[in-house]
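Recall that a protein's primary structure is simply its ordered list of amino acids. Everything else, from secondary elements to tertiary packing, is in principle encoded there. The following example makes that idea concrete.
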Amino acid sequence: MSNKGSNINPESFRDSLGTVLEDGKRNWIYPKKVSGKFYRWRSYLSWVLLAILFIGPFIKIDGRPYMLFNIFERKFIIFGAAFWPQDTHILIFLLLIFFIFIILFTAVFGRVFCGWACPQTLFMEMVFRKIEYLIEGDASQQRKLNAMPWNSEKLWKKGLKMSVFLLISLLISHTVMAYLIGIDQVVEIVSQPPSAHISGFIGLMAFTGIFLFVFSWFREQACIVVCPYGRLQGVLLDANSINVTYDHVRGEPRGMIRKNKVEELPKGDCIDCTLCVQVCPTGIDIRNGVQMECVNCTACIDVCDEVMEKVDRPKGLIRYASDNSVLKQTQKLVTSRVKVYTLLLVILTGAFITLLATRDDLSATVTKFRGMTYQERDTGEISNFYEVSFINKTFKDQLIELRPEDPTYKIEVVGDQNWTLESQSKFDGRFFLVKEQEDVKTNQDKVVLLLLQNGEIIDKIKTNFIAPIR
């Protein structure tokens, strides 16, 4: 490495961030525009992923959204399957499967998700950054523009860029809201005056402001400061994990190429051009090794390969590789940790499928009305007052009925006698459970209520009945 033979700690780069200056101020990153095969592949993939993201809210099955994450009503539709608060345990398994998959994928392939599929990277590098290059130019031109006084050129370019950024942020915020409340609700909000849907309008403006702030100013700090994924790399990666890696065995000792000069000591393939640093969107030097800030965007691979071609040296000085493969040791992808993660993933997936296959399409919760005890009637009957909540998880209307298993009880429904649940809906009802005083044997009895769906018993619900003993 370049610090070899000096008194400088070779790990000193880990004591600071590339985006923060020594005085604590922001070190604005101007990544140089990059091209190459990996950048092209990332661009193609980003088109596909962004198309899926923006088209997603419009995809419907029988009039219902294919994906919905309604955190306000605690209702989720994932790949056409609906989940309600009563399905929280199933959603927990789904989240665990997602996290274990990310952990497994990271243990084997490093932080490739960040560079290729993370929405933050997709929008920042493949949308906003490209617009910035188009309007303000490459890194050197951006520096020059930011350093110049506010003249007509700077006002025009900055104003145009921020206007385009604002329009894209609006588009993203509307898309996010469509995933949260449904595309029909978003269309209704935008087609009517803000006063008609003030909460929805405020939500759209808040999301727009957040996205504009993140992609115009906060930028790479979202990956370095906010996202915990980079910090998790330290415990997820090992010497067999594949990362964007600098081949220090082949590259060191690095040094500039000088014409007509015989070098006293042999040099490695790295010519110390620092282009790998100039194209990095997080401002790191990949030659220092695996770092928290690296998002595996492959920009350094592309630019280094171009340099290697120009100096007539083999490509791959920076490449996807593991530490062991760089050191010419045996590459072992299926380690004991990978086996454990895989086993956990299989177990969780099996449990999720089992829970999904055995879950009830309709659920009911019965609770005694708060603050009320039994009621004695003039007819010689004792009654208890209850609340019931039904959730229809199917996409068809369902006729619901509650019936006591013990014939000495009877149910008196308060209000609408026809308990018909519309598809994907929740219904709250109230009823009295009534029993003759002469049939009361204990002051607190266990009662079983039969839940009927379209005339068929689907569940048994237990509750308590309180009554005085005469």
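The two ends are 93 Å apart (CA to CA). Residues 1-8 have pLDDT under 50 and may be disordered.
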